[in-house]
Design brief:
alpha+beta; globular; single chain; about 50% helix; about 240 residues; about 10% strand; 4-stranded mixed beta sheet; 11 helices
């Protein structure tokens, strides 16, 4: 993800200083300015119209629910050994600041660039050297302003569910991922509504057999059970 690449790049400038918080930026998806009542009746075709990124149907729906950002919080927790209460999400509809690292003195290091996956992919392929990827260069003067706001978990409850899953730990992030895959597929097929996605995911989180320290086989069992519970809920 461009967000985790951005954090990694910012950590290269940390010079051994302790990181206070990680800030993951979120575009807000296609429904950022919509009221809850309008989001509730949104169609799959509307949810697929992302303003900044072309990511394929599954991830685009995850962006519209903000579940993708929740998964990125879970990933950042493990990639950077950071407890979830020190991982912040900020909505940034411009998709120019890809993420930030905050230090104890309040200083922030941010990685900026145009919304183009060639940059983080090229960085990974060429590391530690930077490659010319042919992507568009950022013109700050033409850009003019950058916008940030807090995420609204009332309108986008999937983000809160992801934080709940990683705080409770164990096999619950796996269960959330499985339930979400089933729910998104059903939404794309027109079988459930937009807010049925978080309702279904929450139901699975509360219904799956909890394992605090699951084995690899246990993870596969959790995945299968979560998918069964999700399918039953849809039926």
């Amino acid at each position: 993800d461009s967000e985790h690449s951005a954090i990694f790049q910012c950590l290269m400038g940390a010079a051994g200083n302790k990181v206070e918080r990680l800030h993951l930026t979120a575009s807000g998806g296609p429904f950022l300015g919509w009221p809850r009542e309008q989001i509730a009746v949104a169609t799959a075709s509307q949810a697929l119209k992302h303003p900044n990124w072309d990511m394929g149907a599954k991830v685009t729906i995850d962006s519209s629910t903000m579940m993708n950002k929740g998964f990125e919080v879970i990933e950042a927790r493990w990639l950077f050994d950071m407890p979830p209460e020190r991982i912040n999400v900020v909505v940034h509809p411009d998709s120019i600041v890809h993420s930030m690292v905050e230090f104890c003195d309040g200083a922030l290091l941010a990685q900026l660039g145009c919304p183009d996956m060639r940059q983080p992919i090229g960085f990974a392929l060429g590391f530690p050297e930077r490659l010319e990827t042919g992507g568009r260069k950022l013109d700050l003067a033409a850009l003019g302003t950058l916008h940030f706001e807090k995420p609204d978990t009332e309108r986008f409850p999937c983000l809160a569910l992801a934080y709940e899953a990683i705080r409770r730990g164990g096999n619950l992030p796996c269960a959330l991922n499985a339930a979400n895959e089933v729910a998104v597929k059903a939404f794309l097929e027109g079988r459930i509504g937009f807010y049925d996605i978080p309702r279904l995911c929450e139901s699975v989180l509360n219904g799956v057999d909890f394992a605090a320290d699951p084995s690899l086989d246990g993870i596969f069992e959790t995945d299968a059970q979560a998918r069964r519970l999700a399918a039953q809920s849809i039926r």
